[in-house]
Amino acid sequence: MVVRNELTDDEVDRIFRALADSTRRDIVVRVLRQEQSVSALAAHYRMSFAAVQKHVAVLERASLVTKERRGREQVVHAGVATLRRAAALLADYEQIWRGRARAIEDLLAEETPPGDPGPRRKGA
């Protein structure tokens, strides 16, 4: 199976580096549920406003969020399209692994003599 990747290697790297941090993952979840200003997001964390802004900037560079200026506030929205492309990439990898697991099962089934139940599992 070929992995259909709509993302460049650099984009994939930025996305998964951004998602490697628990605070950034939490920010993505929060803005998926509802858009929020950077100040509203900052109220949820025990860190400075500037630190939250830096986390949002990392997510923005990875296209996982976008910011929109509304008056004096910057409102953060989820980058749903990017999340969908990343999910599709992971689904392709999952299909590769499922195919490999099926191939191993088929190989083991071929090697089991007729009438032999095959290897026993613990508790079976």
Automatic annotation (TrEMBL):
Ranges annotated as spanning the membrane: none
Name of this chain's protein: ArsR family transcriptional regulator
HTH arsR-type domain mapped to chain residues: 4-98
MF GO annotations: DNA-binding transcription factor activity
Domain of life: Bacteria
Pfam families: HTH_5 (PF01022)
Coiled-coil ranges from the UniProt annotation: none
